[in-house]
């Protein structure tokens, strides 16, 4: 059994999952992703400008997830593929997000490597295919 995300909760997250929709705090100017009720940087801003994130960034940190370390919703992928790389990606606009890396270069993943977001199938739950973004080297 995976970590359950209800269909209504999943649908509320569609803008950030499908379109990388972020929000720029009108108080401090920092970009929040995923969107928050209060700015996670200044913790006083509650007014935001919606922005479209570019999907471009660099690898800030990375690791490889294998069998027993996979989150429940990715256990099927871990069984099929074995291990898979995951990175903390620092987007051009500032936020850092965790995402799976696809098509890693043969020479390996490096900190500072340029990456871009791509829309992919993530997993299936309750008969609904869940989509979102992964990153690939540029």
From TrEMBL:
<dbReference type="GO" id="GO:0016746">
    <property type="term" value="F:acyltransferase activity"/>
</dbReference>
<dbReference type="InterPro" id="IPR012340">
    <property type="entry name" value="NA-bd_OB-fold"/>
</dbReference>
<dbReference type="InterPro" id="IPR022002">
    <property type="entry name" value="ChsH2_Znr"/>
</dbReference>
<keyword id="KW-0808">Transferase</keyword>
<feature type="domain" description="ChsH2 rubredoxin-like zinc ribbon">
    <location>
        <begin position="14"/>
        <end position="45"/>
    </location>
</feature>
<dbReference type="InterPro" id="IPR002878">
    <property type="entry name" value="ChsH2_C"/>
</dbReference>
<feature type="domain" description="ChsH2 C-terminal OB-fold">
    <location>
        <begin position="52"/>
        <end position="120"/>
    </location>
</feature>
<dbReference type="Pfam" id="PF12172">
    <property type="entry name" value="zf-ChsH2"/>
</dbReference>
<protein>
    <submittedName>
        <fullName>Acetyl-CoA C-acyltransferase</fullName>
    </submittedName>
</protein>
<keyword id="KW-0012">Acyltransferase</keyword>
<dbReference type="Pfam" id="PF01796">
    <property type="entry name" value="OB_ChsH2_C"/>
</dbReference>
<dbReference type="InterPro" id="IPR052513">
    <property type="entry name" value="Thioester_dehydratase-like"/>
</dbReference>
């Amino acid at each position: 059994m995976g970590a359950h995300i209800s269909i209504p909760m999943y649908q509320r997250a569609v803008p950030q999952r499908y379109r990388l929709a972020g929000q720029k705090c009108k108080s401090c100017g920092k970009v929040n992703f995923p969107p928050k009720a209060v700015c996670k940087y200044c913790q006083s801003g509650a007014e935001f400008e919606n922005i479209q994130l570019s999907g471009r960034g660099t690898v800030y940190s990375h690791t490889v997830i294998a069998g027993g370390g996979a989150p429940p919703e990715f256990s099927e992928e871990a069984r099929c593929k074995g291990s898979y790389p995951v990175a903390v990606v620092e987007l051009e606009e500032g936020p850092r997000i965790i995402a799976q890396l696809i098509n890693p270069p043969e020479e390996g993943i490096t900190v500072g490597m340029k990456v871009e977001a791509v829309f992919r199938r993530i997993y299936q739950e309750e008969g609904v295919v869940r989509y979102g973004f992964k990153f690939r080297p540029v």
